[in-house]
Amino acid sequence: MENKHHEWQKQLVKCIRCGTCRSVCPVFQAADNENTTARGKVKLLEAVSEGKLELTPALQARMSKCLLCKACVPGCPSGVRTDELFLSARRVLADKNGLPLAKKLAFTGLAYRKLFDLGLKMGSVFQGIVFKDAPNGRGKVARLAMPSAGLSQRRIIPPLADTPLRTRLPEVSRVASPTARVAFYTGCMLNYIYPEAGEAIVRILKAHNVEVVIPAKQSCCGTPAFTSGDYRIGRYLAEENVKLLAAGNYDAIITGCASCGAALKHEYGTIIEDPAVKQSWENLAGKVKDITQFVVDRGIKQDLREVRAKITYHDPCHLVRGMGISQEPRQLLRAIPGVEYAEMKDAAKCCGAGGTFSLAYYDLSRTINDWKLDNAEKTGASILATGCSACLMHITDGLAQRSSNMKVLHTAEIIARAYGLD
After folding, report:
1. 146 forms bridges with which residues in the sheet?
2. In the chain, N or C: fewer CB atoms in 10 Å?
3. Domain for residue 159, yes or no?
């Protein structure tokens, strides 16, 4: 624990209490409580390091009330790495106090890949027992409230796919004269919930004469576990994925989910401890590319089909700040004939999903999401594009709650349509 205090001090001493983080923190803006800001959390951790505050469950709850959207990081004039600091604090607190039973069970399940896969496949068959169709037809709602799982009877969630992506597609999708060979890291949500977006990504890659390998033994990226403080499971999943992907000798690792991409490209560096695996990750990280970045790097096709729609775009936090991808999706959307692109206000502001944050603090996440939807609807767009499955799910729920006709699509689905691949 003393070592952790020493690590924290490197960041804590930088904070000058300027309060700049207040102006960009969506949780503070929604809750209007100082302890939800980065500055407030830094003060709490200082008290811990000085022996004035214990690692209590109450402190753990306060540290969890953060979207990890990274908005406070680039705006901090002192360069405090609040994202890394708060992840470290969550780890220490989870080690001390444990995690809720529902999280423990869920994260343990992630470590057993075959069992996890079987469970979700069976879940798609029997989901009708627990969920029913939402009145507006945009997803499902729980038949009974399940607070421990973060599900009320009004929250709309997408159904599990009848057939997961990795079952729909072959492990290797070949092309006649391949110019590159890539691994497609699907992650969990593209595989089990949004397989159509995953299929669009594979079709786009093949249209660029790229051979696509979908490694069958890939595991969850581990983000839900390590962001909650469970580094044991998070590290195990990270190391398993790195060993699998490093063995493939790929030209690139393609992701279609912002959180998966940020984990593979950056966050694994703070999780992995095994020196050999860490070296493999360092060799691999530079190959991780979001699908929009890969397509722009390869060159946007010139013979695009017309798509008549007014489209706006939401920047996922882990894509814009986690992977540094902002212009590429916009370049692709603007290049499509017939598309009227409309930039929304605060497009890079968090939508309020934050992974498990929206499960624990649903009403708060809805307030933050409503600001996003207000800005999106003001553009007059009929389609909102984004590159994160969690954002897609959360924004769809918000639009359904307000009976909006706006559709939410993964950016790859729109690109595939323009490529004539839908």
Report:
1. 151
2. N
3. no
